[in-house]
Description:
This protein is mainly α. It folds into two domains: about 25-110, Cytochrome Bc1 Complex, Chain D, domain 2, CATH 1.10.760; about 115-195, Cytochrome c-like domain (Cytochrome Bc1 Complex, Chain D, domain 2). It is about 45% helix and about 0% strand. The protein has helices spanning about 1-20, 35-45, 45-50, 70-80, 95-105, 115, 125-135, 135-140, 160-170, 185-195. The relative contact order is 0.15. Residues about 1-30 and about 110-120 have low confidence and may be disordered. The chain binds heme C (HEC) (2 copies). One heme C binds near residues 83, 138, 182 and 190.
Amino acid sequence: MVNHTVRVLAVAAAMLTSTAGVDVTKLGAQTAGNDTRGRTLYVKVGCETCHGPNGQETAAAPRIAGSGRELAAFIAYVRKPLGSMPPQSAQAVSDQVLADIYAFLRAAPAAGGEATKNAPAGRADAGATLYRKVGCYQCHVNEGQGGANGPRIGPDPIPFARFVQYVRSPTGQMPPYTDKVLSNQELADIYAWLQARPRPPAVNTLPPLAP
Ligand code: HEC
Ligand code: HEC
């Protein structure tokens, strides 16, 4: 009888410890992201292949480290990318996994500063006017916060070199802008203005995600 009880307890204990090794891809998004777990998942899920070791841009994909996007927008983008990025369904990569990856990307070193250093000095006030004049606002919305027709591009725009390259030859649905339409100096002005945009609310002030 005593032996039996011991065995039942042992089985119960084994079941408890096995939940510690549960496949996190099956969990709902009830908790905030864990950046240590996110580092492993970022590689496992394959984001690294295109976005590089710490999300610091590659020739294949833009910088996503320290992204200005909110968590909900980040998840929405990965589920339904606007360009050539392959979409990830909730079955393949859960919201919780994406919350962990997001936490990792937020904590990743913001080495994108290197490219930003090379940006010609921009005048934010001139940038504000140009942003409207050439029509960026039509897709990226008044404050660069993004909307139905284009992603958020401020207040943490991708590195300047990549920014210019993207605007000159976009890889997705965005129309290209040649240097006849918009000089590098004018792009630097828009860039300076985008950098000065208000920051979105911190992740922990957002309502919990729907499961
Ligand atoms: C096959 C290459 C590839 C893979 C794999 C990939 N991405 Fe991307 N990603 C891109 C490209 C290219 C873009 C630029 C826009 C586009 O084409 O969608 C992008 C854009 C993004 C953006 C929007 C950047 C911004 O701020 O506008 C986010 C967020 C993102 N990726 C996250 C992820 C995450 C998270 C993963 C892993 C689940 C991932 N990506 C896997 C290629 C990739
Ligand atoms: C007709 C809509 C449209 C207009 C106008 C537009 N964009 Fe875009 N932009 C997009 C879309 C959609 C994307 C997402 C990728 C793609 O499809 O090219 C994008 C992506 C970008 C990106 C890359 C974001 C990232 O994180 O990789 C930058 C930078 C950008 N736009 C800047 C600009 C600037 C600056 C202007 C004005 C000179 C502008 N866009 C005008 C639709 C637009």
